Amino acid sequence: xxxxxxxxxxxxxxxxxxxxxxxxxxxxxxxxxxxxxxxxxxxxxxxxxxxxxxxxxxxxxxxxxxxxxxxxxxxxxxxxxxxxxxxxxxxxxxxxxxxxxxxxxxxxxxxxxxxxxxxxxxxxxxxxxxxxxxxxxxxxxxxxxxxxxxxxxxxxxxxxxxxxxxxxxxxxxxxxxxxxxxxxxxxxxxxxxxxxxxxxxxxxxxxxxxxxxxxxxxxxxxxxxxxxxxxxxxxxxxxxxxxxxxxxxxxxxxxxxxxxxxxxxxxxxxxxxxxxxxxxxxxxxxxxxxxxxxxxxxxxxxxxxxxxxxxxxxxxxxxxxxxxxxxxxxxxxxxxxxxxxxxxxxxxxxxxxxxxxxxxxxxxxxxxxxxxxxxxxxxxxxxxxxxxxxxxxxxxxxxxxxxxxxxxxxxxxxxxxxxxxxxxxxxxxxxxxxxxxxxxxxxxxxxxxxxxxxxxxxxxxxxxxxxxxxxxxxxxxxxxxxxxxxxxxxxxxxxxxxxxxxxxxxxxxxxxxxxxxxxxxxxxxxxxxxxxxxxxxxxxxxxxxxxxxxxxxxxxxxxxxxxxxxxxx
Length: 569
Hints:
Largest sheet: 16 strands, antiparallel, barrel
Mean pLDDT: 87
CATH class of the largest domain: Mainly Beta
Strand order of the largest sheet: 13-14-15-16-17-18-19-20-21-22-23-26-27-29-30-31
Helix content: 10-25%
């Protein structure tokens, strides 16, 4: 038992590294500043192997390093030999425009240490460029090689092979997809130059379509200087229609529960064209409603640009009504999406009621807001609907002009000290990660934040948070915020491919607003459990959650229960 408490250092052994060779060779080796002492013998041995590769890359083609162990001492005998340099590497018969596009510069191969690896990479880039320009059978080699007085000269010898164009995409199974759309989406259009990158990206691009999947690997055939691509595709049921019912404490009544509702409709790949249409309606508390309508058009006018149109109407009881229209133009390349968008927003107050007999300008206002901005998204998720590994990053930022519109129920004198036109800046960002621990266990994590900035903000400027899609354990849109950040941790146990049990913890790290007459700051948290059950007909969801904040104590009477069914067709 005594040995258990002895320091680990009593059982570890130190290993030493020593170099032997001529004084000039050792001076060069010492420039690499390697560790000479370690308790890991393998790390010392790897250092020696890495040193040999580095020296070869510096032109010491004939370098030899012979490591030998003597007890705990690793003795490495070094012989560098001559240091070779490029005399020149000429372009040979390669088109200068091609060399320019792959980054070839002759001065990089004149008077520089000879490194065949660099020349090999240059030739690989040339072959890759050829393969994406209609010449998949191109070849290149070093020719006229001369070695003299520790210098190397050579030239490139290039054979393009036949020029190949795409013929067609052949579907081996019947699926609901427009042939022209699919060819344009995969960048494999008849008559265009063959591209190896386009062929390699077929699997990734198909996997990014929620309504199609590959049943087998793509097959490529060449005939008469044309390439035909054979795809075995399967359709997936991705159209959705669902409703969610929630039971919340009735804050405006005497006890009892308030029934809330939500309806969602999502149609994807309409008429096999890739177009999408979405409809979302929510009634999350008395006299409040939300309506979202979205339309998606891929490859707008046969360009690589996708179009997103969004309309939102948000009614906050009798306080205000917000309407916004968004137009997004998005360019997607592999796992990246870059977009430009514009948003037009109007917000209106009632002409009476809460504005009667006010002496100070309220924290609500009628205004028009026009903003322009950009967005970026990247993801490498392994599954569109139920990811188990990968990340997703998305950001949006915009700036524009807010113009306050005078309300007839507010006295003109209250507008005198108010800047009726000002600049406004908005940003949002989200990071999601999925970490598989085993066949059944996955950790889902998310961070989301945002902010809106103006010299005079109003309640109807602010973000709304709380509910099933943000901070669970609270009613929908409970919190107002001009700046917020929250994170989620959610362990999931998959008992079937897409069905899982889960527990979760949501924590707001930053949630506040600062208005002319009101300030608020809180760090609400929520926790709970649920199940997501996937069947052939759709998905059943059940979530129980509790939350704690400055305006809500933890208690069973404040817990939230949400359940719904998503039907896919």
